[in-house]
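Exercise 3.2. Students should predict the tertiary structure of the chain below and write it as structure tokens, then compare their answer with the key that follows.

Predict this chain's 3D structure.
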Amino acid sequence: MTRKVIRTAQAPAPVGPYNQAIAATGELVFVAGQIPLNPSTGEIVGTGDVAKQTEQVIANLTAILQAAGATLEQVVKTTIYLKNMNDFAAVNVVYSQYFAEDTAPARATVEVARLPKDVLVEIECIAVI
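Answer key:
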């Protein structure tokens, strides 16, 4: 099995013992959960606004996928972590702007007690390259 670490300055640097993404066996990219950090400033984007936070999270995912040679169209699985499941509809509105319903990846959405830096949303994904 081949394993390649994917890193880009166009998305926030990891804040713990993990990488932005791992490409495995030359065919899959496993992107670590992304939170709404601005990669240039390290600041949270959209404090209190789950839609703005979701937009930043997807921008971070997009940057990491590009660094791995992939696009959102190649994503086959996402997991969304929400601080509050009442934000599900608002996240879906933003999410649907990037993933068309007929070709959207498989997905799980879960509510969690707390997310890093007390953000409202975190998303991870797996893509095929």
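Discussion points: The radius of gyration is 14 Å. DSSP finds two helices and six strands in the chain.
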